Amino acid sequence: MRLDDRDLKILSVLQTEGRIAKTELARRVNLSPTPCWERLKRLEDLGVIEGYGARISLSKLGPMSMIFMQAELDSHRSEDFIRFEEALSEIPEIVECWAVGGGIDYMIKFVCTDVASYQQLVDQMLTAEIGLKRYYTYVVTKPVKDTPVPPLASMPGTLAD
Asked: How much is the pTM?
């Protein structure tokens, strides 16, 4: 897959202005609307653009707790990782999960109504026998920085270089 400067410009604009009108996007990247729309569609079809969405302020919706968990599995066979990951995919309060290297296996981000509801989920995970051996909990006390991926055009080492 080869992306040129125009593709990267389209992506950079969409990262900060996802609701931009297609005609305005075309103007901003110096293309007529039809070629711009074709490029946008190609980026979607290639999976470079995974989707569009709104950033929601959880604090405006009522009490919410963001909690991170470091998780370690009992066993490290391929089927153990698969079983654990499939189980996590069924828990809506888990909004992000990363397999990581080092002393733990996963870093998991939960959004729950409160710490008690998080603990209920953990108890369910432990009794479900999905392979969770040990976990460490970190409750977010305040957000300090929460931004999307930096605009591609500003990142050294991207295809824009």
From this structure: 0.77
